[in-house]
């Protein structure tokens, strides 16, 4: 991500060595200091690296926490293809991700652009738009969402003004996921703040020059803003994709841990939780976890590989 | 000196730029319409929260009858009744949450600042490799580690304790905060370390007396982010805490649906307001650090 080479040039030999100490001993002392500082991190890495490979192993076993794991080869993965609930949960997660991520990033960019043009009261607006993104994952807000979109809730009341019949948002399988997608879009504030910081770094003279040359607003957006902002769009896209594939709380709280109605909010990770910790199919749940990891890795890789066509790293 | 050091990335907001951009294609009318658009979006976004606060003060019967924001009839008893509505009173849940949050903040500040200093300022064998590994864990989805970690914590006898929620924070497992601090420490001039060394400071003394005091803004950012994410955290407590006496506020809130059926909305909303209030408070107090924090990590 960042270059790590900036400080290496300055460090050694800035001060003359106090005594004829051998090069190697000085090196060892430096290493020791470095490793001491990293000691908590090294131990913490054990809590990451060991479980990482352990779950890969468990993915090929039948394990219920009571009996020792039994090696069953690829059976868990074969079962996954035959499990209609799993396929449904995958569909829910995909729809959720591919609808809400682009929409919330578009909202973030749009509002950031309005805010960028020297507007009065910027800190206020930014605070109002940013705050929801800190609350969106909290149980209180998901609960609130159930009632805002409830049959007697304010959304239906608002639609009623326009003569639209009340919709049972949370109990109709066709609409339940939509409410969560709207909740996701509601949290566009955190990518917005990143966009805003990025927009501020685009030199204003580019726009001046383009305006002098008679470029339209749209043209200025397409030829200046988008290319110069593309690394940040890229960053936000990756972050949002990874986070969105792992949605859990929203589905859990919306329908009391069930993912209903009719599994329409059964996110992949929610189903993984049910398999692992309600049914104690730890092997199957590990296989699910690795499958999702591969899916996330594939989409991240696609984004990375296509990046050279649309991400501009010149400046 | 300190004023220049405290803004590391100096995300040079081109203040004049605003005025300049304002000039082309921006008339008084278009400026006005921008404000209108922003106010409408802001109002729509805030409305659910305002409705939450107002509903928390209404008697149950009125919540879905009278949708106006100003309660026609006040029912502050939602707060007192809601406080004791569950098996334990909310004082227990709040103090549980506060204990976990405070210890998590201490843990993250301690372990991540040590690791960050190592990565940012020291030169040792394998540093680049470890740094890459650290960045890799930042992208690693947590659910892959979930099941073995659960088994491990179960074997250690840590189920139904706070250890699974706290210990990882003391072991610098949150790479995001390390990265944030590394970015900040790199922006401090190297001459500081050199001067300290000439004066006879070892790396620990330099870290403690020179670098730590200058990193206060990065620590504030870390503390606020930790506060918000741990306070909101639902999955970890759900997984590891089964004894209601140990419940955190989010777990307790969810019980409102389980236990009370669907009738005690007022009390549930009242406790929801109380659970969101600390986040909003920290947000108002620390907005500067939050915005700077996510901007630096996003912009590299």
Task: Please provide a written account of the structure.
The complex is a heterodimer of chains A (315) and B (300). Chain A is mainly α. Chain A folds into two domains: 54 residues, no CATH class; 234 residues, MetI-like (MetI-like fold, Orthogonal Bundle). Chain A has a two-stranded antiparallel sheet with strand order 1-2. In chain A, strand 1 and strand 2 form a beta hairpin. In chain A, helix 9 crosses helix 11 and helix 11 runs antiparallel to helix 14. The N terminus of chain A is likely disordered. With 300 residues, chain B is mostly helical. Chain B has two domains: 68 residues, no CATH class; 217 residues, MetI-like fold, CATH 1.10.3720. In chain B, helix 5 packs across helix 16 and helix 6 packs across helix 10. Chain B is globular and about 70 Å long. Chain B has 16 helices and no strands. The N terminus of chain B is likely disordered. The chains are: A mainly alpha (315), B mainly alpha (300). At the A-B interface, helix 1, helix 2, helix 4, helix 5 and helix 6 of A face helix 2, helix 3, helix 6, helix 7 and helix 8 of B.
